[in-house]
Task: structure prediction
Amino acid sequence: MKGLVLSGGAGTRLRPLTHTSAKQLVPVANKPVLFYGLEALAACGIREVGIVVGDTEPEIRAAVGSGEQFGLEVTYIRQDAPRGLAHAVLVSREFLGEDDFVMYLGDNFIVGGISDIVEDFTATSPHASILLTRVPNPHEFGVAVLDDAGQVTALEEKPAHPKSDLALVGVYLFGPRIHDAVTAIKPSRRGELEITDAIQWLLDNGSQVRSHVISGYWKDTGNVTDMLEVNRSVLEGMERRIDGDVDAASELVGRVVIEPGAIVKGSRIVGPALIGAGTTVVDSYVGPFTSIEAECHLEDTEIEFSIVLSRSSIIGVRRVEASLIGRDVEVRPAPRTPRAHRLVLGDHSRVQISG
Result:
């Protein structure tokens, strides 16, 4: 079995951050979202993985390389534009050959991995297998309809009037017959080759499509709110580890990770929280569900439930909450008011904020 990871797309819902960075490389607990998917594939015993890339190909290549760090052999497959998930399968035909494969959306996050699903697919050999989860807003997703026996009867992409609340999770397992399907279908009203249409073609042509309704944690990390929620979930699973320097005037409460080279002085850090390598925290409060990447500087600042990317500084600010702050950002005081701030800042930003 092979893996196919989709890492194209513009990431419009994470702008301005994704004007200068691939959305799949935005970190969760100081590790790119894409890496979690690659690790999940490697944990299933998959070794050959194709990564479908677009305009951010240089960044993805620089971060993933040959795949050796994950125990994978990576092939990069160029997609000229985001033309739909089925189009990604179409352009990957040469790489996939006649092998079964897992298609994994690079900005999706599933707690617990997919090993059980892969094992079931291998044992039962259906033409396709899909993962489903119940959502409150099914009109924003591909939706599946099941009969009383739990068999898939129909699929629809982002329907205006959903017939169920079962959304397709961004992981699909396919046998080689999917290649006939993606060749047969036509672009949707959105102008894309929809994977839901391809799976519907399989159903209409007598193919077996299995489904698994998952109850575990899943998020499409395409917007700031979901990024922060995934970050919270990952941080909750951390174990306390102090590898940096913490002075006697500081207090660390709960599951706090201080990476090597980080310095904490006169500060209070309440976990779960992660302080990256080489970061300095001085006279500050870092609250729960916060991850600070490497080489940042926090001083006389309060921050919680936030993600701060590398080499950024926040000095003299009260108070930062529910924020995603990009790389090389400077946040400093300006004239007065207000006392709480919610920020979504792109890389290399310069912002003045009232103290």
Notes: The helical segments are 33-43, 57-64, 85-91, 93-96, 115-124, 178-184, 195-204, 224-236. The CA atoms of residues 109 and 201 lie 27 Å apart. The radius of gyration is 22 Å. The chain has two domains: 2-234, 239-354.
